[in-house]
Structures are given as structure tokens and as C-alpha cells.
Specification:
The protein is built from nine helices and no strands. It is mostly helical and 200 residues long.
Amino acid sequence: MSKITDRLHALTLLDRAFNALTDDELAALVATLPDDHREAIDEVCGAKEGGFTDVAARTLAMRATAARGRVNGGLEQVATLATDPCLAKCIELLGENSDNPSHDNLQEIAPALIEEFGLGTVRMMLASSIAGEATASAMLIDVLKHDEVLALPPATKVDVEVLPARTADEETKAKRKAAKEKKQADSAARRSQQQKAKHR
């Protein structure tokens, strides 16, 4: 695959991991972050000086930033800041295997990470590592696609309601026809008057 294709694939996984978190999970995650991380998220998400004072407003701003952030980097910034403590713990638990862990290495530490940070946060941390071009990206992609525990849930599909074709009833059709005929008759009358005026 090309670099661009790989990049789009990584961002798609990160987008799915972010969207898989419920609003409550996202708010709980942000609440556990160090102050400087939370302040940085607020800044990335466009908060005024002093940051967000309302949790729901911050969550909404994070989702909006992530939604448009696949192009401008906002999605990655928010995800990286939100999962930084989880990543630090992951690196600590992996020890000497942290640079290029195997699937088995990750499986060994996954339960401890999930217990401390929650499954959704761990998934987003892994997806964020892929977007950051981690050495073990190929293995992490496989994990997020196929692992029994860590695999991402299916992408949420938005059902688009197809509106029925607009059809006019018989009365409306008759009114339209009459209006059209009247307009044509008026136009013909004007043309006739103009012709008579020319010959005077």
C-alpha cells in the first residue's frame, strides 16, 4: 500500500476507536488526566481562556474537533493527549519490549491496562500509536481488527432515511395545469396586442 493509503487506514482506525467511546467514557477519561493534558485538550478544541467549565461542552467540542480533525490533525492531537497516561503505562509494563512488542507481549499486559484505563481508552491508545507510525503498527492493526478482546467494534453505520418521491394529488395537478394554460393564454394575448400595436 502507498503511504497515503496507510495514512488514511490509520486515521480511519483512530476515528473508529474515538467514536466507539461513549460520552460518559470520554468524560471519565478526561477527568483522570493531569491538568496540563486537560488544558491542552481544551486549547486544541477551541475553548476560551480558562478552558471548558462544563463537561458536556468539552465532550461536544472534542467530538467536533475529532470529526473535522482527520485533515488538520485535530483528531490525533486529542487522542494523543487523552491516551498519553495509558501509553506511558503501556511502555512501562512492556519494559525492554516497548520499542517493538509482539502480539504475545501485548496480550500479557492488556488486562492490567484495561483494568486501569478501560477497554475503550486502550483501543484508542493503540490506534493512536498506529497513526503515530509505531514500529509495531502492522501487529497493532491486526490486533484492532481481529483480537478477541481488543478488536474494535464494527464501525457505526448511519442509516440515511430515503424520502419518498414527491407526487402531487389530482386536484393540485389540475390547478397547475390551469395556471399553466392561463399563463400561456396571457402570453399569447400580449403578443397579439404587440403585433396590433406595430401595425397601427
